[in-house]
Design brief:
It contains 5 helices and 5 strands, in the order βαβααβαββα. It is α/β, with parallel strands linked by helices. Helix 3 packs parallel to helix 5.
Length: 121
């Protein structure tokens, strides 16, 4: 997983990764998280390390956006990605389209996350 933090030109980074996804035909999974978010840490310990999820992740561009701090850029990203709280997992298809209907807010157990990931093209 590639990690980026608030204040590190997140929008340009995301734009670059979306363009890369379109070039390579890969979908993207973005985990928006924060250091203070307990459920975010549970995702790290129980979902993102699950062997099935790890295997499925190999076909994705995998990103973690640390939204611990907020600034104008991060607020705009939250609006664009329709994030209302953390954690939120956002999927972008291989054409670069944000799949708002597939986003996950809160915790989703590994088997369900795997099914969600398998539905993304």
């Amino acid at each position: 997983w590639t990690v980026i933090h608030t204040g590190e030109n997140v929008q340009a980074f995301l734009d670059e990764k979306i363009a890369e996804a379109q070039r390579t035909g890969q979908p993207i999974v973005i985990d928006f998280w924060a250091t203070w978010c307990k459920i975010c840490h549970v995702l790290d310990k129980k979902v993102w390390v699950d062997p099935g999820v790890v295997a499925e992740s190999a076909r994705f561009i995998t990103l973690k956006v640390d939204a611990t701090e907020s600034d104008a850029e991060m607020e705009a990203i939250w609006r664009d990605f329709r994030i209302s709280g953390l954690p939120t997992v956002v999927f972008i298809d291989s054409r670069g389209k944000i799949l708002h209907g597939k986003s996950v807010s809160g915790f989703l157990a590994a088997p369900e996350m795997l099914v969600r990931m398998q539905s993304i093209r």
